[in-house]
Amino acid sequence: MRPNQLSESIDFLSPDIVIATAPYHHSLFRRNTEYDVPVITPANQTGIWVHNVADPLLVAIGSTQDISSLANLEATDELNPDTETFLLSDLLSVDIDLTDLTTTLDGQADYEAALNSNDIGGSYTHLTTNAPPDYRNNWGDLTVQGVVPGADGTGVEKTTSIALLTLHRNGLVSSRDIDAGKFGLEALDEIGPNRADTLRDAGFTSKEDVANTSPHELQSLDGFGRKTAQKSHASATALEDGNVHRTSDATIPRADPVFIDIETDGLSPTIVWLIGVLDSASDRYLTFTTRDPDAKGKAVENFMMWYTANASNRPIVAYHGQGFDFPVLKDHIQRHCSRYVDAWEDAWKFDPYWWAVKNNNAILPGRTNKLEEVAEGLGWETDDTGLTGGAVAHVMQRWLANPCEETEPDWEKHEAYCEDDVRSMAYIFDAIKDADRLDGIATTSDATESDDENVQTAQGTLSDF
């Protein structure tokens, strides 16, 4: 990661703590940023360190001997045994044997022995730098959660990426993974490391510099054809001015849309437990939900009952709907309320993400095309619940596996997360609808220009340094 990318990423993410995965990252951070936040390097940690500014608490340890200090911290009330504490180290490693297809937790025996030999009464989630953020598993009495992107336990080289982790009082961890290439000049469409070097050599050190020049001047640079010059300039302009820029005259629905977002128990869902709906005709927000694990089709059926009675002649709009919401709803309508199959098939469905990105009709101002990033780029002030889609799905999985008071979701918090997604999507839709056409942008590939860089556009996926 280049220094300007590091500084820009910290400015964008505003973390309370930085976890560095190698000792030299600590000095790199201090040398290239002005931010006064704690930097923890588990691989170089000596003794015990407690971050007691926020709740829940984060404790970093360097060896199993440090675990003995936890009992003393509980006794002196520095740690509250009645609330969740996150214990960070590199002492546990998830090892995956790709030949035998088995998984082991290296370091588990010594780690558990240290915990069991001390009078420790609190509840702990054990964070390891040797597993990725989407890894979470119970190993006996240990709840183990990964924190480093690319640490998959296979020995494969780790990726260069950033994970923004949010720690919750119930022990869950939600994560936004951001590709480091989404910062600096590499954040621009069509710009990879080689073209970023070309821009820097020509005096362009920031996205603002690129936005303030002309596509014609960019086209004079080595490796920049017409398409690259136009798209990189348009991308820089969108990121700098925080506006959508349309690149075609393709139309979008003008009738009053029905904006929806669904919450499920994962990417191959067994239940759609919540459908949030914003009816733009009345500006009413509606919630269709089920809190009964045995009534898995209730939310879908009630939504379709409402839609067919009140809005069947208006478009259903879902961000990334083509890739998730629409096929999932179709499947669950067929499973649970097949009498609405024809109505669903006849419904006018529109996906702003698909229209803008997949069909090249607009350039969006987010660092990526994820809903929250685009809305943020446009100035939307999100309702910060600290949740992500993955975290919500994990909570639902726990509840479905064992519906009880201990696993019951915070329904109101999850519903607020869904509502914010729906309203931010409507905000994006309105921005697309009101956007001006950007002159001179070709929406098809320029056949005369070769592109030998392995480039992800600035509107791809998000990603530790």
Describe the structure.
One of its GO terms (molecular function) is nucleotide binding. Residues 455-465 have a biased composition (Polar residues). This protein is an alpha/beta fold and 465 residues long. The chain has three domains: 3-181, no CATH class; 184-241, DNA polymerase, domain 1 (Orthogonal Bundle); 258-434, 2-Layer Sandwich (Nucleotidyltransferase, domain 5). The chain contains 15 helices and 18 strands. It has helices at residues 3-13, 23-32, 68-75, 108-116, 193-201, 207-211, 215-219, 226-241, 298-310, 325-336, 341-346, 352-358, 371-377, 389-401, 411-434; strands spanning 18-19, 39-40, 48-51, 57-61, 84-97, 102-106, 123-130, 136-139, 142-146, 161-167, 173-179, 245-246, 258-264, 272-279, 284-289, 316-317, 349-350, 362-363. The strands form five sheets. Strands 3, 4, 5, 6, 7, 8 and 9 form a seven-stranded mixed β-sheet that branches.
Please give a handful of descriptors for the protein shown.
alpha/beta; flat; 3 domains; seven-stranded mixed β-sheet; RNaseH-like_sf; five-stranded mixed β-sheet; nucleic acid binding; Nucleotidyltransferase, domain 5; 465 residues; DNA_repair_Rad51/TF_NusA_a-hlx; DNA polymerase, domain 1
Summarize the structure.
This protein is of the alpha/beta class. 33% of the residues lie in helices and 20% in strands. Strands 3, 4, 5, 6, 7, 8 and 9 form a 7-stranded mixed β-sheet that branches. The chain has a 5-stranded mixed β-sheet with strand order 15-14-13-16-17. Strands 1-2 form a two-stranded parallel ribbon.
